[in-house]
Design a protein that fits this description.
Two copies of one chain form a homodimer. The first copy, chain A, is of the alpha/beta class. In chain A, 35% of the residues lie in helices and 18% in strands. The interface between A and B is large, with 81 and 81 residues.
Chain lengths: 577, 577
């Protein structure tokens, strides 16, 4: 398409507005864009493929937002295109989730042409009242910046500003593109240099003093630990986390959000710290520690086991996106180089060698009754050997995310769990997005994702199975069929009909959603461990490609851990009545 | 459940807060409530069934909102229950549609307990920043009133105010119920009397003068017509519309939104007026009319064929929700009794007998080549004989809603079409909601709904097929399989890949979504008129119950009317290039 690209007009260089925006996205490492066509974004979509981007049309906009969020968590940045009103509002819950859990999604909305907006024309996808600013106002609550590309003189700066904000905060931004603007020429001058996200200035004196203070605390520690939380990802400090864990050799735990952000194959990495549910030895170690290096904390109730795993302030050094906390003291305006400098300056010989508490004991599978029903308690240990380095492992909010916390992950895997937003229906489209990002980053068509999802959550966004199939992604989909919203049953109303769902025949999914004949046999199910073992050893599971569906049946009230406490207290109350 | 109901405390009468709200909903004629459970609304859901309401759990919240919208358009009022944040934002596009097209949906949101909100606790389903007011702020843009039930002293008034607003404006309202408030006792005094929606005062003098003026215009008219638009429904004047059309015998047309709101079996009712696409005789009659009685106008571009069917001001008398326009003059603060009074006072002998233009000629099916492929041009005429009085007929945005405009509807049918919001994915869940409302209102399990939907729209919200099955509704679902978003192809990008969708095997739908064995045979498909005829004459279609699926294959660029103009202009442009 000759109309797309940079053009020369006299001595000036110009580009079509949409080309400018999409080129910036490519420069920032985006290779695929998610979304749904609508009549205010069709001209905009004309630019996607010619700009070298892969268009991933999803079945609806909420699923596109979820997919974009998943893509951003792997790739660092993603983009989503929807249409005005109907499309963007359908997506807004997904954008809110990206805001809550820090995924940088660029939400591009195709809007009516400027003349229609200026004349307050009563167009469709509005409330037929001439008001065009409502949806932008709603976006203010769930994005870090909003910009409306109506003036060709400022478009390059507006785009650059919005993208910088997304990168800086690792959160979504909102960009409106009127239908008649996509072809308007704007200056292409800035495209010559890549977008630079400003860092903090070096502040030697303040930094040096803090460096010394932190070093001393580290050298003095006798019962230290490292807690890896999920904001290490948006903070972009994963390699430093790895270095710190290796250099100190100190006992290291993660939160739910931090799970998989540190190599669990390292001998000093213990896995997820579950607070009240942890072993006595772990709890004692954690609660009497004299130093907790707290990396990327995120203090929602669900990520902290009801605020129980938040480190004591007096023994903590916490690394947040915009500050470092040492005990009660707050240090702001520090350069990103602080943590690398700290690591480089640490004298390994002065760091205490520490013996942590005993590691978690996992189920002894050798003694398991293979003819017994599959239970939450053992299922996750049982499937664990399936995982390989580099796998993506996704556990939907519900029993799956609770069980997935205890997985022993091979190196370089990434796990998604239920952190804070907890929007059921998220994880299947997020699998789509994350798997595409992984395939692109690895340049490897064998990249693999394994999703664990309950039957209730699956119903929310089930149609994206279709896009997983058409994108030819390698996905193993475990459907935990426990006849309804089991996590809600645990919380309240364990016998209430509102926690029931309609029973689907999951073995029809591949056929319904258009898998080709060669894939139709990729359907499996298991009710006992024996059956599950047979499924797991099937070569289509071990070495196959494409989508494979494994339906695993469990009891409708089978829960473990915190959820078991909740359901048991319901039962106790019932017995009292 | 003994805890639900009105209680006596000393001499005062009190009720649990939720019971108060749900009792009011029942008094206003709501029998079913739609929604999805979530952990901030579970205690609230405990009240639904014991209050005598039918709980309809949908697969996700957007679909619940669409279903509630469909229910409200048949029943006058509906209710939807979601959970804080994730649930309500998933539903918000459906609420916006109800706002745009005037359906009174009571959106009840279960929120975190007051103590958590007051202490700015970092709970899940928030952004973990202590801010609890964001979602309520977003709701302000798409609802007529918002109220937060945190104070037991004012709850009855708050509930009554919100419900009155919904009824008065026939638009959605937003009610927040903190988790710890559902059981709080509130005064039940008001429950003794039904909610009264205030009317305007009688304003004799002004009203009498206007009455006379309108009467005279009617008596003088020589080439008059009546235009029935969609806001007659929220205005609640359907019986007066019927009376006026019968009493005058004048040529009567409808808009898209007004379709089915007047009995098309009456000899003077012409059907849909399509403006530029109408016959020359119709256009001439419309454009040279000396009086247009314009009932419930709604002037979006899509409802007016690009503003082409808006009656000339000088010859119009327009009845709007809050005013009557006579030519350039506006009359406000008139009582609702104005139209009944006008009808009662009209002297039939002074009303001109008018001969309108010839009626629309429909396809002569006798000459049709039955072996030919099914086309948009003839399909709608071909299936038309299937319809019976009292049927609900729903035509999703796309080719279906364009085709459905020319249906000849039996009396007492109701048709849903694409009006202004045009959110694809709406119509399948709306069918669910509307069919439930119809069944309840008619007290007839044989009530029937017939949905026409494209394969692209179907993918958006397909899971609600499951709820249609589990609710045992009698639905005939025509899937127009034309391999993608054909309406978007017509608008722009007819060959572009972004308008393609993955091919599904629709014949697996009943199996996948859990139909029982006796229903699995209710699958049909047709590529030719001969095949379609065979399907339509099948007794399962004519007299069967439950869900029946008919897949109809059409060409991917087969469009008619306005859409044909659009696609032809694309082709013309391509040929020039």
């Amino acid at each position: 398409m000759a109309s797309i690209g940079v053009e020369s007009i006299g001595s000036e260089c110009s580009a079509k507005e949409l080309y400018y925006l999409l080129t910036r996205l490519r420069q920032l490492g985006i290779q695929s864009i998610f979304g749904v066509p609508g009549d205010y974004n069709l001209r905009l979509l004309d630019f996607v493929t010619p700009s070298g981007l892969h268009w991933v049309g999803t079945c609806n906009e909420l699923n596109a937002a979820y997919a974009a969020d998943g893509y951003a968590r792997i790739n660092g940045l993603s983009a989503l295109i929807t249409t005005f009103g109907v499309g963007e509002l359908s997506a807004i819950n997904g954008i809110a989730g990206a805001y809550a859990e820090k995924a940088a999604v660029i939400h591009i909305v195709g809007t009516p042409a400027r003349a229609l907006q200026d004349s307050r024309s009563l167009m469709h996808h509005t409330f037929a009242d001439g008001e065009y600013r409502r949806f932008g106002k709603m976006a203010e609550h769930v994005t870090v910046t909003q910009t409306n590309l109506v003036d060709e003189r400022t478009v390059p700066e507006q785009v650059d500003w919005a993208l910088k904000q997304a990168v800086l905060h690792s959160r979504p931004v909102y960009i409106e593109v009127p239908d008649d603007m996509v072809n308007v020429l704007v200056s292409a001058e800035r495209l010559g240099s890549e977008l630079e996200v400003p860092g903090s200035l070096e502040v030697d004196e303040k930094e040096d003093a803090l460096l010394k203070q932190v070093q001393e605390r580290i050298y003095q520690a006798q019962q230290p630990l490292i807690l890896v939380d999920g904001e290490c990802r948006p903070l972009g400090i994963l390699s430093q986390v790895d270095e710190l864990v290796k250099k100190t050799g100190w006992p290291t735990w993660t939160t739910v959000f931090g799970k998989s952000l540190v190599n669990e194959e390292l001998p000093n990495v213990y896995g997820h710290y579950s607070g009240p549910l942890a072993s006595e030895e772990w709890k004692t170690y954690f609660e009497t520690a004299d130093l907790i290096i707290n990396l990327g904390p995120h203090y929602s109730d669900t990520n902290t086991q009801g605020f129980a795993t938040i480190p004591r302030e007096s023994v903590s050094i916490s690394f947040l996106p915009d500050r470092i906390l040492v005990g009660k003291d707050t240090f702001r305006e520090l350069p990103r180089s602080f943590l690398p400098r700290l690591l480089q300056s640490l004298d390994g010989s002065r760091i205490a060698g520490v013996t942590g508490p005993p590691k978690l004991s996992h189920t002894d599978l050798a003694t398991l009754n293979l003819d017994g029903p599959i239970t939450q308690k053992t299922f996750y240990d049982f499937v664990n050997p399936l995982f390989r380095p580099e796998d993506l492992i996704l556990t939907e909010t519900g029993t799956a995310s609770h069980g997935g916390r205890e997985f022993q992950l091979p190196r370089d895997t990434r796990l998604f769990g239920a952190v804070t937003w907890l929007s059921i229906g998220y994880m299947l489209p997020a699998t789509l997005g994350a798997a595409i990002a992984k395939r692109e980053l690895k340049k490897d068509d064998n990249a693999r994702a394994i999703l664990f999802i309950g039957d209730g959550s699956l119903q929310m966004s089930v149609q994206e199975i279709s896009t997983i199939i058409s994108e030819k992604l390698n996905v193993i989909l475990f459907i935990i069929n426990n006849a309804g919203y089991t996590i809600e049953r645990a919380i309240h109303g364990r016998k209430q009909a509102y926690n029931d769902i309609a029973a689907w025949r999951h073995d029809h999914a591949l056929g319904f959603f258009g898998a080709d004949k060669s894939q139709l046999g990729n359907n499996f199910s298991a009710r006992t461990y024996q059956e599950l073992q047979t499924v797991l050893s099937d070569e289509r599971i071990q070495f196959g490609t494409g989508l494979r569906v494994i339906e695993v049946f469990m009891d409708r009230e089978d829960v473990t851990g915190l959820l078991a406490n909740l359901i048991n207290s319901q039962i106790a109350k019932e017995q009292k009545q």
